[in-house]
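#lab-general

N.A. 3:47 PM
ok so I finally got the sequence cleaned up, no stray characters, all 434 residues accounted for. can someone with queue access submit it? mine expired

B.Y. 3:52 PM
send it over

N.A. 3:53 PM
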Amino acid sequence: MSRLSPSVLVIILLVSCLFIYIGPAQNQANQGLVGIILLLIVLIGLFLAFSGGSVAQRESARNMLGTLTGITAVSCAALLGQQALNGNLLGLMCAPVLLAGVYMIFLAMTARIGQHVEEGEVLLIQRRMDHQHIIRPPGLHSPIVPALEVGVAVMPTYNIQTDVEIEMVDTASLHTVDKIMVDTQSRIIQRFPDEGESMPVEMRYEGFLKLPYNYPNRDHIFKEIADRRNMDVMQVRMSADFWIEAIQSQLRRDVEEDLRAIIHDNTFYNPEKRSYGKLAPADISARRAEIAAQLKNRVQEKVQQWGIEVLDIGITQVVLNPDRIKAFYRAITADLEIQTANRLSEQEIKRTIAMADAEAYQRKKLAETDLEIQRQRNEIENASSLQMLQDWMNTIIADNPEMKPDDLKHLLTLALDEHEKRKAYREHNLIEQE
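B.Y. 4:20 PM
back already:
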């Protein structure tokens, strides 16, 4: 009984109280008291059906309403059965059994005309009296009562795949990436109970209550999708395909907007340079995992406000035009070539200077060696010359003992002058030979 919608339970409660009032209560003297009791039952039922409060309180009120309606319906059937058999207790006992049979027939009819929610979908209903919402999970439910309820949406519970293709993405270096392919996995927010935990339906399907009303720019988008399908907005909202298309449409816009902002504005750590910097076109493919992680966080902050949970975002392909890459790296290549040429020139200059220094050092060493040889030669020659002069002087003195010292001095001067002339002549000849 409690699986029926509150509107249907209220109708059963009203009919049961009405049958009790116009049936068994007619023959009683205290008909007014019975009427007051029945009125209190109806008021309590209405309060339970349309009371607010938390999700858990509404679920509890609905169960209480189902129990109250069941007791009232069984009591109505028992009293009507006893009255039909002129107070016989057989009617008091058989009527509830007959009611059970009628209830089974009612369920069979409901199965044919009731609201069937497909597996993987959820039906959202709004009550007209208090604007409260009811979530109907997959399964068979009582039909919507148009006077009391209105269907809001039929939404999917499964994961939604969205492929986003973004073209001509600008980077901070004023160069463009031709195309980036992004895959996303998302779903409407759901809370899954832990093992053994009892969770009301509305609490589990939390995002399904947000999405129809928090969807950004919903009137324009909903009307645009409905016009493409040649259907009314209220009619097309009762299809899960409509919500899939709406979710994918908004996700594509958010993913494209945030991805462009990340690539153009955000900085990434470069372990080689040990610093942060912005990405060039060729770096995007190598850093796609980091970009996807930042993109997921930014998109999740947006979509969770309107009831969507992003499960995964991945960048599957980054397309770069080869000519665009060459143009981008042409200046860098030219700078590298200039730097290489300068480095080679500096190395050649250093090598030439080193060779010149080595050759100069070698010449210096050779010159010093030649000077040393010449100095030693001169010393030898000077020693020989002195010995020869000494021998000559001794011979002159021995042959001419009567020679005066001035004459001897004159001869010695002439000999030294002759020796200096011959020495200068020899040095001149050595220089010309070199």
